[in-house]
Each structure stands twice: as C-alpha cells, then as structure tokens.
Amino acid sequence: QSALTQPASVSGSPGQSITISCTGTSSDVGSYNYVSWYQQHPGKVPKLMIYEVSNRPSGVPDHFSGSKSGNTASLIISGLQAEDEADYYCSSFTSSNTWVFGGGTKLTVL
Amino acid sequence: QVQLVESGGGEVQPGRSLRLSCAASGFTFRSHAMHWVRQAPGKGLQWVSFISWDGNTIYYADSVRGRFTISRDNSKNTVYLQMNGLRAEDTAVYYCARDKSTSYCRDYWGPGTLVTVSS
After folding, report:
1. Which of A24, A108, B13, B105 could tie A28 with a disulfide, CB 3.0–4.6 Å?
2. Cα–Cα separations (whole angstroms), residue A50 to A9, A37, B64
C-alpha cells in the first residue's frame, strides 16, 4: 500500500491557476474512478473537495475541478484565492480493497 | 446536520490497548459505511479501516491488520475501533469519517481524537 505521489508544494498568485498531480499505479488510480481530493487548513479537519475524479460536492466553489489520465489524477484550482492556501490530499480506492492517500501538497498563495 | 464525534483517545504504553468510539448524528447512520483515518503529528493522512453499513464487509490497512478491529452498533449510531498491541508509530489523531455512498470517499469527518503511544 504505497502512498500516491504528490508534489510536496505548489504556489501561485491570486487569480492564477495551479494543478496538483497525484500519481498512482494501475492497481489504484489507473483502475478506478474513485479518486477524491481533500483540503485541510492548519489545525482543521479534512474537507472533501472532489469525488469520483471530477465531481464537486455541493458547497465547493466551482473554481475547483478534477481530472484523470492513466495513472495520474489532477486537481486544478483556477482563479486562486487567498483562502485556498491549505494542504491538499488525493485518495484512491485500490484493487486490494483498501484506500490510499497521497503524501499531501502544501499550496501557498503568494 | 451531520455530526461525528470521536472519543476514547489518550496516552497509552506500547503493547497496551485502547478503544475508540465515534458517535454519529444528523443522518441515517445504518445507511452509510464508515471509515477510520489517522494523521500522525505533522504528517499526512493514512487510511486505517472501513466497515460497511451492515458490518458484513470490513477492510484494514496492512499496518493495522491483525491488531485493530472495527465494529459498529447501528442501534447506538456508533462505530468503534479496538486497537490492540499499540506501537509508537500508531501515535496520531484518529478521525472517523462517513462514506459517501457509492462514491468510495469520505464526505464528513469528525474532529478527531489523539492517541499517543509512549513509554
């Protein structure tokens, strides 16, 4: 159950767009559309931002979107806002009937 | 509104046991699977265990299989995590989370309970 691979950090200026990648294998990201993304502000509880690769729960701003190609999923944040600064984690269901998270990406809004 | 509240955390010596509870309210508990997820201090999220709505399907992470046991009581709207043979590397905040039905993700999380394993 190796963790999915995410960049440790990304940054962008307000109004810009950024992409956070999440690379797995053919046993997890590549085989299932059960990829989800979570936002976690310091000291806070994780919040579901994207599920099933590209679906947004109600209440999540529409400048968050998701996609997947092969073994890599991506979280795209367009029109960066100061409040988007947080840690982001991807997660996928796996062929072993388990779930795996990525190591997390710290997003800094410059 | 959906609420999940964990309890039972604390400091325990290596090799000892602890049972976590997660009380749910604001939704039809018996209709949802549940997860436990943990986060070591300053580290990322790690999935721990899953239990289906009826308790008949259970999964564990390799790191806890054979030591941890998940269970639920739908009459009490509560999910449990029995943790035996605790190790220093089990030190973490433990979150319970509701499974978003058919989507294999976690849509609501509790505030977490801290488990510290130390001699």
Report:
1. A24
2. 19, 5, 27
User: pLDDT tens, A2-29?
Assistant: 889 999 999 999 999 999 999 999 999 9
Q: Of A1, A57, A93, which is closest to B62 when you measure between CB atoms? A: A1
Return d(Cα A91, Cα A95) in angstroms, integer.
Answer: 13
Q: Report residue B16 as tokens.
A: 């000892």
How far apart (Å, rounded) are the C-alpha atoms in residues A106 and A89?
Answer: 9
**B104, closest residue in chain A (CA to CA):** A34
Give the residue from B109, B80, B71, B110 showing the smallest Cα distance to B18: B80
B114 in contact with chain A, both atoms CB, cutoff 8 A: no
Q: Is B104 on the interface with A (CB under 8 A)?
A: yes
